[in-house]
């Protein structure tokens, strides 16, 4: 995968950096693995806005990804595809019995490669196995938090987790953020690092591309009236006027820690992220 710099023929292309999609080998999705997701536009079951600045955007069909990797059978890679619902690439697998599934495409996975999952399988990109069977020092992704519940961690483009140690029935892993935590050895993970490393280098360049992704415009609080936002009001260009920034409803934000102090998973975190 790579990126390409647009020629500055228009203001929107002056700083635009787009994906060149050179790593794709299959351009039509598998119809049997497509499903339609409801478009909520950031509204909850009551019809009220629960996530601001969302709505519109292009119509996208969801690709059903196999995060569990619970089929212990050899599969062949049919192609690497683009997924509009995530920044990582996906790979279409065809198992020996004819069933097809999508998985996250790691670095080094190509068309025609054989991947499998199980307890005693080779340590190569794309294979899934329990943490108890993975050697210390291996880079992994798509890691389960609970056995059999499917991968929850390290699923975005370029994500790779280092397996540091194993002790007392748990594996110690180091996340890309620097956080170290314990995961049960019976949880499954996939070997390798998620592909599409240059996804972080893509720069949209103009507001229209962000609207295509379903993001509506955002207005700064200091540009509003005082009846609309606590930061609003004042003569001319006024500062926030508070000790710390707050949300439109007066709650502290921008650096305020929101994690519950007595969360159940607190005991599994050995070192906080940077």
UniProtKB/TrEMBL annotation:
GO molecular function: rRNA binding; structural constituent of ribosome; transferase activity
InterPro entries linked to this entry: NA-bd_OB-fold, Rib_uL2_dom2, Ribosomal_uL2, Ribosomal_uL2_bac/org-type, Ribosomal_uL2_C, Ribosomal_uL2_CS, Ribosomal_uL2_dom3, Ribosomal_uL2_RNA-bd_dom
Biased composition (Basic residues): 254-274
GO CC terms in record: large ribosomal subunit
Keyword flag Ribosomal protein: yes
Cited Gene3D superfamilies: 2.30.30.30, Nucleic acid-binding proteins (2.40.50.140), Ribosomal protein L2, domain 3 (4.10.950.10)
Entry-linked SMART domains: Ribosomal_L2, Ribosomal_L2_C
BP-aspect Gene Ontology terms: cytoplasmic translation
Entry keyword set: Ribonucleoprotein, Ribosomal protein, RNA-binding, rRNA-binding
The keyword Ribonucleoprotein is assigned to this record: yes
Domain Large ribosomal subunit protein uL2 C-terminal, first and last residues per copy: 123-252
UniProt domain Large ribosomal subunit protein uL2 RNA-binding: residue ranges: 42-117
Region Disordered: start-end pairs: 225-274
Assembly: Part of the 50S ribosomal subunit. Forms a bridge to the 30S subunit in the 70S ribosome.
Family (UniProt): Belongs to the universal ribosomal protein uL2 family.
Task of the protein: One of the primary rRNA binding proteins. Required for association of the 30S and 50S subunits to form the 70S ribosome, for tRNA binding and peptide bond formation. It has been suggested to have peptidyltransferase activity; this is somewhat controversial. Makes several contacts with the 16S rRNA in the 70S ribosome.
Protein's recorded name: Large ribosomal subunit protein uL2
Species assigned in the record: Candidatus Saganbacteria bacterium CG08_land_8_20_14_0_20_45_16
